[in-house]
Amino acid sequence: MKAMQPKQAVIYVRVSTDKQADQGASLDNQERACNEWALRNGVLVRKLFREEGASAKTLKRPMMIEMLAYIEENYKDIDFVIVYQIDRLSRNMNDFVDFSRAMYQYGVELRDSGSQMVAGDSDELIQGVQALLAQHDNRLKSKRVKENMKRHASEGYRMHKAPYGLRNIRDEAGRPTVEPIPEIADDIAHLLTEYAKGVITKAQVLQNAREMGLTQANGKQMSPQFVDKMLRQPLYAGLEKSTLTDGQVIPSNFEGIVAEWVYYTIQQLLESRKQSRTEGYKTVSAEYVLRKFARCGVCDSPLRGSASTGRRGKRYPRYHCSTPTCHSAHVNPEELHEQFLDLLTHVKPNEDKLNFLKAMIVRVWRDEVKTMRLRRSKVRERIDKLGEERIDAAESVITGEITSEDKAAITNRIKQRVTKLTAEAQKLDRLIGTKEEAIDYAIAYMGNTPRLWNSASPAMKVQFQQMIFPKGIVYNLGSGDFGTTEMSHLYTFAGIKKDPSEADESLLVTPAGVEPAIFWMRTRRPGPLDEGARNARRAFSVDAKRSVNSETTSESEIAMCCRSVRLRRVLATAKNFD
């Protein structure tokens, strides 16, 4: 029987980190202490289980699972499980109770290297208290680790696994950061930039990624879900966002592989497409490029594009109102596209106005460049001053004013500030480096809109028409007319007559061939206007004259227009397309 046989035991030792070797708890030290206990008490050790680099938060550890299976198979010959300390077995009270219950069923007792062979009345209580203390200590350590990780994350350091195309490294100070994998990061940057321009969809990003040979991080074929994660990853733009930053986007110490505007533009595109009512509208159709851009002149709902099929299978494509209760007519896509192309020829400014508009934009841009250069100069002065502070800290160590630890902390703080200021200086350099060719491109686009729109790809057509008519355009399906609509500020101010510096004369005149709003344009059914249309035209004429009244337009308003978001978007888009 088991009671008549020599006492036998198994030994279990574990470490979770290399630091424990320096604290007297290495695997060898644990094994030695457990063997000494067995020798001292005349117990024969049957088998040793060494757990290397495994956390005690759970019992699902390789060697622990193997030991439990061994005990289950040989429990009749095993009297003890020997551990160095209770926390080597588990740091979770529930797991400790489960382990103790299993050993009780097998008739196996738990001993640590400091206990007696014969269990006392209080041994079970002591072991339970030790397990509770181990769990409490583990929670305190987890809290400290999390606080340190949050602090490092707030300073821009990478505390998680690097996303696809980047790899985790340590900087000179030993802090965690990332660096790009050249053969992958360049392709990812290209895909992100193209998507930010709005010329391709997520499906096209996936197709292009596969053609480039990109795979998921695990080596499997690129999936739509993985593409979505790539598009939403802020680290590619040198930004951090995680639970450690409380969900806030903050600057990272990693410069990024794309500009910040790429990330934010992508998020806006994803959000706007998420709110789309129809899944199919996320893809630009060559047959219906004005879909959702043109609105019904009766109910102001977006026009949809679809095709009915005749008895013989012939397709009949058409634009129609998206509101079921609106009983307006429909129009053939080719006919509407011809009308829109004709409309673009009427909003084309003449060459003199384009040249003057360019001169005005360049002047305002040069004023902004002066401000940015002044800011850049101050940033560089601050960087130089921080360099001097770093030298002073080194000298203070030599003179004994501060310790080496204090010097290291000061140096790290200075380095973090220098990194942020350097990033700001580089950003200012890029903005200042915006060349006049970008403005030339935008102006040339305004002068060649009909030709560019007609020859562009479907996706690019959508971009072009939205740049001219930011809020879309109204189309009356019944009469075949375009309605009043708001144009881009660039076209509105293309009729400026005088230089802003000549404030004594009128700054604006009614443009010839370009109007800030376009009245009903008849290209389909020419003929005399009815009474309602004549009244609408009179109302429009009054509003149009008010909008270009020289007495209500000041130089500051013109400058504000030039600094508007739409102008920046046009210039940025032109620079990216160039």
Any chance you could write out the topology, listing elements then pairs?
Blueprint (H helix, E strand, L loop, with lengths): L7 E8 L11 H14 L3 E9 L9 H13 L5 E4 L2 H4 L3 H14 L2 E4 L10 H32 L11 E5 L5 E5 L1 H15 L5 H11 L11 H8 L7 E2 L9 E2 L8 H15 L19 E3 L6 E7 L5 E7 L11 H14 L4 H49 L4 H29 L3 H12 L1 H7 L2 H11 L4 E4 L4 E2 L6 H4 L28 E2 L8 H17 L7 H8 L2 H13 L1
Parallel strand pairs: 1-2, 1-3, 3-4, 9-12
Antiparallel strand pairs: 5-6, 7-8, 10-11, 12-13, 13-14
Helix pairs in contact: 6-7, 6-9, 10-14, 11-12, 11-13, 13-19, 14-15
Mean pLDDT: 76
Q: Would you count the extended β strands for me?
A: 14
How many helices? The count is 19
Query: How many angstroms does the end-to-end distance come to?
Result: 89 Å
Question: Main beta sheet: strand number and arrangement?
Answer: 4 strands, parallel
Q: Could you give the order of strands across the largest sheet?
A: 2-1-3-4
Molecular shape: elongated
Q: Whole-number radius of gyration?
A: 36 Å
Alpha-beta content class: alpha/beta
The portion of residues forming beta strands comes to 5-15%
Which residues form runs of ≥5 with pLDDT under 50? 276-282, 496-530, 532-578
| Helix-residue proportion | 40-55%
Characterize the structure shown.
The structure is a single chain. Mean pLDDT is 76; it is low at 276-282, 496-530 and 532-578. The chain has 19 helices and 14 strands. The chain has a 4-stranded parallel beta sheet with strand order 2-1-3-4, with helices on both faces. It has a 4-stranded mixed beta sheet with strand order 9-12-13-14, with no helix packed on it. α11 (351-399) runs antiparallel to α12 (404-432). By secondary structure, the chain is of the alpha/beta class. The protein starts with 7 loop residues before the first strand and ends with a helix. The radius of gyration is 36 Å and the shape is elongated. The protein has helices at 27-40, 62-74, 86-89, 93-106, 123-154, 182-196, 202-212, 224-231, 260-274, 333-346, 351-399, 404-432, 436-447, 449-455, 458-468, 489-492, 531-547, 555-562, 565-577; strands spanning 8-15, 44-52, 80-83, 109-112, 166-170, 176-180, 239-240, 250-251, 294-296, 303-309, 315-321, 473-476, 481-482, 521-522.
